[in-house]
Amino acid sequence: MMTQTSRAIAVNIPPTLILTVTHEQFVELAIANRELQLERTAQGELIVNPPTGGETGYRNSDLNGQLWLWNRQTKLGKTFDSSTGFHLPNGADRSPDAAWVRQERWDGLTPKQKESFIPLCPDFVVELRSKTDNMEPLRAKMKEYMNNGARLGWLIDRKNKKVEIYRPSQDVEVLENPISLSGEDVLPGFVLDLTEVWG
Q: 63 burial class (0-12, 13-18, 19+ CB within 10 angstroms)?
């Protein structure tokens, strides 16, 4: 039993070991370890993501800033950064790099639901690949968002200067070195300038 005066000891988990937790356990774990970026698959597998480096961090901040500014002007919904957890309909707990939820969906949540992991899938999600990320887990995550109700998703691959655009019930569209991205009818009038992202 750990007392208030006990010192925490870091535990290294080998990649071959799969830890599973319930949603409730995951919430407790995330609250106790706010410095870590944690996610949980629909099967309950715990995923520990390291903090991003400076290059990815400032590019992600630019992306979030552009989305926030558009939303501040249109007031069509709520924007969220990578520290926000979403409890998806399939049971997974995910934290996209940027997300947006339509205002009427946000308004439909109780105050308690708004304080915890948000119990829905965002309408719009962005995952920004850092140079060391493997694309396949990111692609699987984007498909998961689509299968859980997202209406538009962008997987931005900085390493290869490509963007994969995900839409429900459609093939993935791949853009080579685009200078901007359109929010289409999901984010009307939003255009993401990729200048800083590619930088």
A: buried
- Please list, in sequence order, all residues whose beta carbon lies within 8 angstroms of the beta carbon of residue 102, skipping any fewer than 6 positions away: 76, 77, 123
Q: Give the Cα separation of 5 and 118 in Å (integer).
A: 34
- pLDDT of 3 strictly over 60: no
The tens digit of pLDDT for each residue in 96-152 reads 999 999 999 999 999 999 998 999 999 999 999 987 788 999 999 999 999 999 999
Query: Which residues, other chains included, contact 68 with Cβ-Cβ below 8 Å and sequence gap of 6+?
Result: 79
Write down the pTM of the prediction. Answer: 0.84
**Mean pLDDT for the chain overall:** 88
Q: Domain for residue 13, yes or no?
A: no
How many domains is the chain partitioned into structurally? 1
CA distance 65 to 84: 15
Residue-level pLDDT at 1: 45
Q: For 178, how many CA atoms within 13 A lie in the half-sphere containing its CB?
A: 17
Which tokens is 127 given?
């995952």
Distance of CA 140 to the CA centre of its chain: 13
Structural domain boundaries, residue 72: 54-198
